[in-house]
Amino acid sequence: MGENRRVPATPSLHDVTTRSAQEPDPVCAAAVPTAEAAAREVADPAAVGEHLGVSAEGPRTVTHFFACTTKGYRGWRWAVTLARAPRARHASVSEVVLLPGADAVLAPAWVPWVDRIAPGDLGAGDALPYRADDPYLDPGYMPTGDEAADEVAQWELGLGRLRVLSPQGRRAAATRWYLGDRGPTAEEAVNAAAPCSTCGYFMALSGPIRQVFGVCANEWSPSDGRVVSVDHGCGAHSETDVERAEPQPLPEPILDETGHVAIVLPPREATPTRPGGPEAPSTAQESVAGESEAPDGGAVERSDAATVAGTDPAPRP
What we know:
By secondary structure, the chain is an alpha+beta fold. Helices cover about 20% and strands about 20% of the residues. It has 9 helices and 11 strands. The strands form 4 sheets. A 4-stranded antiparallel sheet has the order 1-2-3-4. The chain has a 3-stranded antiparallel sheet with strand order 7-8-9. The longest helix has 12 residues, at about 165-180. It is flat, with a radius of gyration of 51 Å. About 15% of the residues are buried.
């Protein structure tokens, strides 16, 4: 017998499927004009750009990608899926869709309103929906029918509510307050001279949380009426004071006489006389100056005493 040739093994269905998924079908991959014509038929012809590539979807099934040139759709691609039957020589169009690419501009994921609202968003006329499974609340004390026990629980202990704060809710609130702007890491607390635990305006809360938090009752403090931690602080502490500066003596005043300026006053105008008699001084300053006009127009001197008495002394020789 002659040398027998080795017969190649028949490929399994798994090998054919794997190879087909990795390598695009040649007939479908070559049908770029068919895919482009289908995209232009569905979309605006001007919105279909260049061919970006092809991807194998399965045996004899590929998807061609074309750029989308529509404004506002940066990074989006027209995806045209082609397929062919076994032994068929031509591919047919399965679907045409517009898909986002890696750098496409997408709207944020839709979030229900209950989960979308954040702390601080609630307005004066808004109301939150009821949450039956709130993890921060536990069932409260239910009346038992015992009047004495119910009175102690509801009034003396402050209960009587359907739900109360759970341990998880207390931890969440304490963490939020401590790491917020009324905790020890706030700027005003870092610059404070003493903590709130030593301030007379610090009102400790009740219950276990009083070991860490209280309420500020100082109207001069920026934290007035707010929950603060015991190691918070501000400049309105009741037991601190500002550093008072010592008064500095002022130097003796210096009179600068080196830069005087001479002022030339205009000559004084003569006071007109009244007809039939001499003109008396019109002002007290003219009387004190001691000068007036005689009937003949000459100047005479008046003494201060005569001016005050209202007499007209005789002219001096």
